[in-house]
Amino acid sequence: MLGKLAQQFGRAMGKHSALRDAIGEVVAGRWRPKRPDPQALASTFEPHERGSILVAAVFDAFQAIYERRASDLYRIATSGSGVLPEGHLHPDLVNRLAAEAAKSAKHVLRMCIRALDYCPPVDVTFGDFLRAIITADVDLVRDDDLSYRVAFIEAFRRRGIYPRDVRTLSVDSLRWPDSGRGHEADRVGRLAALIDDKLKELRDDARTRKVYFERSQRLAEDLRNMIRASDFVRHELEQLIRRHVVMSSPHPEIENDRSDLPQFEVHAVRPAHRVGPDGDVVNHAVVVIAQRRKVRLDPADPASPPLTFRGGVTLIFNLATFTLQYAIGKGILDDDRLHQQRELLSTGRVGSAWNTYFGAPHLGLAAEPFAMLHRSDEELAP
């Protein structure tokens, strides 16, 4: 039930189960769990089906964490034999198992939500999300005595989810590189201190969520203007994130502003205050910078449709040391990633969700009816 979506809707359509089931399938009228297939992700292109692979991986991690947390209860209940006695379980044991399941689910949910701050701003892959989960958890929880991180790594490995630029699946290799270890990170200390002051003012002055949102948007705009106006800050910051965003050197495919500098946007400036289970406090500021690059879908054809290629970086400042701890991004000048995006759009390896949001001109459909939103191209063909 936890991995099912729209159960009643699925049955109304004539299915024996939910509309979508990430962890199981109905065979001969009976539900059974799906076996992890490491090759499924590489051969699956429909967005909902790819999403179900991620859901299944997270659910596998949850199940492993729950079993580890409840292992002592099972040992007590079975007297060490591993076999439960016949009859109903004792209500106290049921309550304890339910409490461990709820606590495990809460911890997994928080790990996934925390990871969003550690993702690149564009072109996020499942492998990036795994690295974000591991990095965020390492920052907050030093001693992983229940092996939460190992559970996530193993669950993603069984589903064939691997980061592209990591050779081994270990906690140390999956963690994002720490920019704060380099002496160059200290050069942006003044920028980190300024962000800290502005966030404190924002927290003290904003009395409603609406005011907080409006002022945070204004803060992002002010930060962008400050970076553009200061040659020193712009140059030093670009030295740390030059693989992701171009700030000083003009590029023919990136529009310039009035000062003849490459345009970029600061999408968000937000605080991240977290307290770990041991009482450790993590005080971060998250800054999201994005940039656009105008190219052609087919570089060899001048008449080819235009394509907006996006890059950007998520900057995580440690406000305790005023250093740049992480620079997590996707390069605006990454031609390999650009080639992959061109190939994806040219070959049409996109499922029904693409047609839902962007239309399907090759089928002559200006707009899909609501009832057809989740139909594939094959179902729509005459």
Q: Residue-averaged pLDDT, rounded?
A: 82
Q: Spatial order of the strands in the main sheet? A: 5-6-7-8
Uncertain segments: 360-382
- SSE class: alpha+beta
Strand content: 15-25%
Q: Count of helices?
A: 14
Share of helix, binned: 40-55%
How many structural domains in the coordinates? 2
Name the helix and strand elements from N-terminus to C-terminus, one letter apiece: EHEEEHHHHHHHHHHEEEEHHH
Largest sheet: 4 strands, antiparallel
Distance between the termini: 36 Å
Note down, in words, how this protein is organized.
The chain is an alpha+beta fold and 382 residues long. The chain has 2 domains: 36-174, no CATH class; 184-349, no CATH class. The protein contains 14 helices and 8 strands. It has a 4-stranded antiparallel β-sheet with strand order 5-6-7-8. Helix 5 (91-115) crosses helix 6 and helix 6 (126-140) packs antiparallel against helix 7 (148-158). The protein is globular.
Task: Please write out the topology.
Layout: E1 4-5, H1 7-12, E2 20-21, E3 24-27, E4 30-33, H2 40-43, H3 47-69, H4 71-77, H5 91-115, H6 126-140, H7 148-158, H8 171-174, H9 189-205, H10 209-229, H11 231-241, E5 265-275, E6 281-296, E7 306-318, E8 323-330, H12 335-347, H13 352-358, H14 377-380
Antiparallel strand pairs: 1-2, 3-4, 5-6, 6-7, 7-8
